[in-house]
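Per your request, structure below.
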């Protein structure tokens, strides 16, 4: 699933806003996939990073 890998690349590069958009699309378009579960975990990590940086 290319969208998930694109989001992972953005996450790794620190482009968290773009990564978040991609992860949300993965969850919406492929709700039962393994990538969707991983995307949910990544969204939590992004939220925690944003929370801790405030």
């Amino acid at each position: 699933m290319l969208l998930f890998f694109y989001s992972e690349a953005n996450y790794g590069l620190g482009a968290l806003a773009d990564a978040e958009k991609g992860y949300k699309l993965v969850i919406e378009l492929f709700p039962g996939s393994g990538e969707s579960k991983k995307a949910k975990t990544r969204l939590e990590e992004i939220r925690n990073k944003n929370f801790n940086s405030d």
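The mean pLDDT is 95.

Regards,
D.
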